[in-house]
Amino acid sequence: MDPLNTVLHKEHLTREDLVLLLGLRTPSDTARLRARAVDVMRAQVGDSVFYRGIIELSNICACDCNYCGIRAGNAKVERFTLTEQEVMDGARWCAQAGYGSLVLQAGERGDAGFRDFISHLVRRIRAESVLADLPQGLGITLSLGEQPLETYRQWHEAGAHRYLLRIETTDPGLFATIHPPAQTLAARKQALADLAEAGFLVGTGVMIGIPGQTLQMLADDILFFRDHPIDMVGMGPWLPHLDTPMGDWVQPLPEADQLQLCLNMIATVRLACPDVNIAATTALQAMVPDGRERGLSYGANVTMPNLTPVHARGNYKLYEGKPCMDEAREECRGCLMGRVESVGRTVALNQWGDPPAYARRVGEGKGHW
Ligand code: 5AD
Ligand code: FES
Q1: What residues in the chain have per-residue pLDDT under 50?
Q2: Ligand 2 atom at minimum distance from 324 CA
Q3: Does residue 2 lie in a domain region?
Q4: How many angstroms is it from 42 CA to the middle of ligand 1?
Q5: What is the CATH number of the domain that holds 53?
Q6: What is the pLDDT of residue 134?
Q7: Which atom of ligand 2 approaches the CA of 323 most closely?
Q8: Does residue 28 sit within a domain?
Q9: Distances in Å between the alpha carbon of 5 and those of 8, 9, 14?
Q10: Would the CB of 49 count as within 6 Å of ligand 2?
Q11: What pLDDT, on the 0 to 100 scale, is given for residue 15?
């Protein structure tokens, strides 16, 4: 067997193996990585693509992440919060479109009013969607940043069952470079542990191609996913947003290389953490029009159609070049279905699509951090 083949079929990948896979460049090598990741995906999570309709419900944020377009310090953004009716309307649309699962995302806020607004929305969506055609109701995922354990408990109690909180990078130096001093890697890790403690299925992820990030750091990120109770992984390229402190940072990688690195990351996570859900993220589509399809063909099995009302989308730009800014959710639905089908996959409608990783971990008594 040639060395790459040996690594591709290893049960337990070492850090060196991960670095080797992430660094593959030639078309024949990346094709082999891709093919192996798809085989593992089919065997472990199946061939279906799951949708999570995402509503970006507010861009008000107390944080000042150096990369993010809606950081508190960006005075150029017009701040918005959707009304209860707009969120409910989006949730109903999501259920009727058969998406099965809804993500509520917003900037990070610690005020009690916001916390209770979220609990109220989650309760209402769960109650109404159970009454609708979906016997289980809509699955609800939250993506609302770092919060106290009590808040996570309250939201879980209200009926949300998954939570997305990216670690962004597990490298302490790089984390400190891209965040203000008030935000720490230790606090982010604690929040992830608290989410598992509160009973959530936990999704995390990183940005790829941050200046200063190495293949070794990305390999360590993957080891972090593998060594913790992580059920879902969402990753995409770091893309500059001009009105941020990183807006003039020079991307050291040519665009094609950054894209290939993102795809290698998806495939390598699929090999290292075979039964998790992996998202083909919108940011991939910001790099190239068929970025999401490429993510799916490297072993991703989830994608997140945008359900935010068009009037608000322009104010929820985390990075430059975000796609689907003017397309209404109906248009994205048709467009995305075509994109998924173009890579020979089908969408699993009306299902939550929980990753097998969760049931396995609970069965093994490894539900906690
Ligand atoms: N480029 C790419 N991804 C970004 N995010 C925020 N800003 C950017 C950017 N400039 C990602 C972060 C965050 C998620 C909601 O969006 O990873 O966790
Ligand atoms: Fe939104 Fe294609 S996915 S328009």
Answers
A1: none
A2: 1
A3: no
A4: 29
A5: 3.20.20.70
A6: 75
A7: 1
A8: no
A9: 5, 6, 15
A10: no
A11: 98
Residue with tokens 């929980």: 354
pLDDT reported for residue 200 = 97
* pLDDT of the residue at 366: 79
Ligand nearest to the CA of 304: 2
Q: According to the model, what pLDDT value does residue 361 have?
A: 86
Residue that is written with structure tokens 């790459």 in the block: 4
| Domain interval for residue 194 | 43-363
User: Does some domain include residue 92?
Assistant: yes
Complete DSSP assignment for 58-83: E---S---TT-TT-TT-TTSPP-B--
Dihedral sign of CA atoms 255, 67, 143, 103 in order: negative
Domain tally, the chain: 1
Closest CA relative to residue 235, chosen from 201, 284, 271, 291: 284
Q: Cα(329) to centroid of ligand 1, in Å?
A: 22
List the end-to-end C-alpha distance of the chain, in Å, as a whole number.
Answer: 37
Contact 164, 142 (CB under 8 A): yes
Q: Give me the pLDDT at residue 354, please.
A: 93
pTM: 0.96
**What six digits make up the tokens of 116?**
């209770």
19 assigned to some structural domain = no
Specify the pLDDT at position 131.
Answer: 66
